Amino acid sequence: MIRLEKVNKTYEGGVHALKDINLTFEQGKINVLIGPSGCGKTTTMKLLNRLTEHTSGTITLNGQNIQELSPVQLRRKMGYVIQNIGLFPHMTIFENVAAVPKLLKWDKKRIYNRVIELLEMVNLDPEMYKDRYPSELSGGQQQRIGVIRALAAEPETILMDEPFSALDPISREQLQDELVRLQEDIQKTIVFVTHDMDEALKIADQIILMKDGHVVQNGTPEELISNPADEFVEDFIGSKRINNGFDLPAVSKLMSNDFTSITTEATVADAIDVMMKHQLEALPVVNNEGKFVGMLHLFTALQKVDDPIENIVQSTTTLFPKMDGKKAYEAFSNSNLSSLPVLSKSKELIGMLDKDLLVRDIYDILDQKSGDQ
Ligand SMILES: Nc1ncnc2c1ncn2[C@@H]1O[C@H](COP(=O)(O)OP(=O)(O)O)[C@@H](O)[C@H]1O
Ligand SMILES: [Mg+2]
């Protein structure tokens, strides 16, 4: 956790870039700084890892005043990702990601395992990519490497200054999704700068809207949309979103925790019984640790009654608790199932999201909106 109390920054030459900033960046949260150019976003970021020093006030990292740490110690605790990541062009992907752990003199085996693990985390096949050079990757892939390079030495905090703004819209959306998903696993303190409100609304746990060195408003995306502090916030969010904005809660709020599943130890005949009893077209299958294995479809089961369940389960689109409800709705268009599994970060089956119920939620929200007016 990082806390800023009454922080001021005046640059040499007299620009008062930050004025009495009070903020908390909690661990496990994506904190997004947003505001017009020159409002002080990058300055805030640079104070955190002491690329520049604050003029007054206090900044603490997990309770410790950052002035008590040397800039080198501090930067080891903080990964930094910037817009044009500047991977080292003459080094392979492996060497790029391994750079900081090497500097910290990790042993070879540990470095190797860490690089492989990180490549897998962002869905880049290690065998395919580790020996390539940055120029042999697309922009989106290079930026993924930038992100995992910042994560390599297991920093507590990740600072990201407009990390995706140079990417095309599709790669950009993909990386935003991946960052949210990755954060489910890594639970770091992320401070993320952007000037794009769509990006902020999509990824933020906390949005901090700044103007002329002040914090104008901070809160969850829902809080800013439903209760903008003043006209500046309204303008920045866009009246379209405030008046007509239609938002669904996250999957965790929409899913059902009361669902039926079966373990791989059961027989297909058992599974058919369960499906008949509950009138299901498919049944989620978990192993004996509760981890999701796949879906058993009724028709497949009826044709393969004597097979072990594991052999006939089918993979499916899966959802995660923090996923945006609208994204989840879109997921149904790529699936022939009317109910999709929701998995925890360790792949346990924790809920099912039913398309019919989701549609009903949409109607409830529409009803509430027309009631408000
Ligand atoms: N090194 C510097 N010296 C003097 N003024 C600076 C310096 N860096 C930034 N500023 C000024 O501080 C203010 C905030 O800048 P910055 O934090 O970069 O804004 P943002 O990232 O929100 O665009 C601006 O007025 C900018 O001109
Ligand atoms: Mg900036």
Automatic annotation (TrEMBL):
The record, for SMART domains, names: AAA (SM00382), CBS (SM00116)
Q: What is its main location?
A: membrane
Q: Per UniProt, what is the membrane topology?
A: Peripheral membrane protein
Q: Give the top-rank taxon of the lineage listed in the UniProt record for this protein.
A: Bacteria
- Which segments constitute the CBS domain? 255-311
Question: What are the GO BP annotations of this UniProt entry?
Answer: amino acid transport; glycine betaine transport
Q: Which intervals hold domain ABC transporter?
A: 2-237
- GO CC annotations on file: plasma membrane
Q: Which keywords appear in this protein's UniProt record, sorted alphabetically?
A: ATP-binding, CBS domain, Cell inner membrane, Cell membrane, Membrane, Nucleotide-binding, Repeat, Transport
Which reactions are catalysed by this chain?
A: a quaternary ammonium(out) + ATP + H2O = a quaternary ammonium(in) + ADP + phosphate + H(+)
Molecular-function annotations in GO: ABC-type quaternary ammonium compound transporting activity; ATP binding; ATP hydrolysis activity
What's the EC number here?
7.6.2.9
The protein's location, in the record's own words, is: Cell inner membrane
Q: Per its UniProt record, what Pfam families does this chain match?
A: ABC_tran, CBS
Instruction: Enumerate the NCBIfam families for this protein.
Output: proV
Q: What is the annotated quaternary arrangement, including any partners? A: The complex is probably composed of two ATP-binding proteins, two transmembrane proteins and a solute-binding protein.
Q: Which family does it belong to?
A: Belongs to the ABC transporter superfamily.
What name has this protein been given in UniProt? Quaternary amine transport ATP-binding protein
